[in-house]
Amino acid sequence: MSVTRHGPGAERYIGLRRLPPCPSPRLNEFRVSLSAEFAPPPGLLHNAQPMLTVKTISELRHWIARQRGTHRRIALVPTMGALHQAHLRLVDVAHEHADCVVASIFVNPLQFGAGEDFESYPRVLSEDVSLLESRGTDLLFAPQVTEVYPHGAQCAARVDVPALSTILCGAVRPGHFGGVATVVTKLFNLVQPHVAVFGQKDYQQLAVIRCLTDELNFPVEIVGVPTVREADGLAMSSRNRYLSAPERVRAPVLYAVLQQVGQRLREGAVNMADLQQEAVKRLEQAGFRPEYASIRRAGDLAEPTVADAALVVLAAAWLGRARLIDNLVVERVKPESGT
Q1: Which DSSP letter does residue 290 get?
Q2: What residues are annotated to the active site?
């Protein structure tokens, strides 16, 4: 089992304790100021031990058994690596729900289709390790493909959530959500988490995971974390690094279009087809290649009726080499009966 180092500066905070009150008010004020200036990074005080990195299932199971043997609550943050601030927010939220946090980094071949970016997907493990350490992650599970699929990915048993896997992104990426459901099921079985944390940027993926958790009776609490955005509104994503400089300038238009649709819905618009077509047209005018823009019922992604108040606007579009997805949850006023 390999042991990695602490995050930068972590040694300064080991053994921190609360100091007794000081008789001098001015000195107490100085203490407060100094404490704020040298406050540890989020999550660091949760973990005064070095983060462990394991690559085999046997090592993982050994560590999990020890944590469960001491009745520690475990949180899981599954990722494919190439981490950014949105992933770190997931780790921070995981610390709020558990005694120890397990992150996984695994580029899952089952969720990539033919001609997609499995081979070129960014793999920067050393950078990812440093970021996870800086947030006080307890353990990183970073297996090879042969560890997760010992008989080969093509021969692996599959988990499918049919009702949610063939619409929206599933319609243009057949098999994608089956791959997601399969690897998440494997991780739930291996890590046995009490809670698992996922971002809401991929709204459909979160819906698939909630459904499989319920259908397969996993005793796992699923926590969805609101999308983390850049200052200009672009949802953070590992694939944003595919954008050229001019494309990066245009990329926030995707979220702006969703906001426009959301505003129209809140103002009482009921013609969903027209709103969706207008969104696609605006994206095309901005240089995107839209796959879809769709308004769905927030709870189950079904086609909404006029009476539905909780909606979500979802879109997927290409901009250069980057496939971008985003969504916006909208709560609209229900039309009065008879109108």
Answers
A1: E
A2: 87
